[in-house]
TrEMBL record:
GO terms (BP aspect): base-excision repair
Residues that bind Zn(2+): C15, H29, H186, C190
Top-level division of the source organism's lineage: Bacteria
Originating organism: Liquorilactobacillus nagelii
Protein name stated in the entry: 3-methyladenine DNA glycosylase
Signal peptide residue numbers: none
Taxonomic lineage: Bacteria, Bacillati, Bacillota, Bacilli, Lactobacillales
UniProtKB keywords: Metal-binding, Zinc
Length: 195
C-alpha cells in the first residue's frame, strides 16, 4: 500500500531547452550533453551529428541517430573514411539527412581523424589538448546567455580547418564542445550544473 504521507521526490530541474522536451531529448541532456567524452569513436559521432544538425533542429538529428549509426558504420572513422563510393547509397537513404555536402564532409573528416590516430596521437588527445584537458565551465543563469560560439571555439575551428576538417565552423565547433563536454553549459539551476 502506498504511503500517502511519504514526501514525493522533488522533480529535477534541467536546462530550459530540455525541461519540456521528449524523453529522448531529456535522456540526451541527462546522460550525454556536457559530460566529458574521451572515446575517439563517440567524439567523431558527436562532431558528425553536429555537422548534420547545422540548419536543422537537434530533435530531428536525435530522432535519426540510430539510422545514422547504421548508415555510417557506428561512426567508426576507419570505416567511414572509405565510404565515398557509397555516397549515392547514403543519399538515397530516407532515414538519414540526405545532404551531400555534409555527408562528404563527414567522410573527409573520418580520413583526417584516422590520420591523426595513425600519427600516434588519439583523436581524443588531439581535441582535448586544445583546452588543456580541462572542461571549460560556464555558469550561465539562462539559456539566453549561452553564446552560439566563443573565442575558444573560433580558435579550435581554425585548427580543425588547418588540419583539413570540413564543415567545422565556430558555431558547429561550439555545439560539438557542448555535446562532448569540452564545455559545460548547463544552466546554473540545472541539476547537472558544475558546482
Amino acid at each position: 500500500m502506498e504511503n500517502k504521507f511519504r514526501p514525493q521526490a522533488a522533480p529535477i530541474k534541467r536546462c530550459n531547452w530540455a525541461e519540456s522536451a521528449d524523453q529522448l531529448m531529456q535522456a540526451y541532456h541527462d546522460y550525454e550533453w556536457g559530460t566529458p567524452c574521451h572515446n575517439d569513436q563517440h567524439l567523431f559521432e558527436l562532431l558528425s551529428l553536429e555537422i548534420m544538425q547545422a540548419g536543422l533542429s537537434w530533435q530531428t538529428i536525435l530522432n535519426k541517430r540510430a539510422a545514422f549509426r547504421q548508415a555510417l558504420a557506428n561512426f567508426d572513422f576507419y570505416q567511414v573514411q572509405a565510404m565515398a563510393p557509397k555516397l549515392p547509397q547514403l543519399l538515397a537513404n530516407p532515414k538519414i539527412v540526405r545532404n551531400q555536402a555534409k555527408l562528404t564532409a563527414i567522410i573527409n573528416n573520418a580520413k583526417i581523424a584516422a590520420q591523426i590516430n595513425k600519427s600516434g596521437q588519439t583523436f581524443n588527445n588531439y581535441l582535448w589538448q586544445m583546452i588543456d584537458y580541462q572542461p571549460i565551465v560556464h555558469h550561465y543563469q539562462t539559456a539566453a546567455e549561452v553564446p552560439a560560439t566563443d573565442p575558444t571555439a573560433i580558435k579550435i575551428s581554425q585548427t580543425l580547418k588547418k588540419a583539413g576538417f570540413k564543415f567545422t565552423g565556430p558555431v558547429v565547433v561550439y555545439s560539438f564542445m557542448q555535446a562532448a563536454g569540452l564545455v559545460n553549459d548547463h544552466q546554473a539551476d540545472c541539476f547537472l550544473a558544475a558546482k
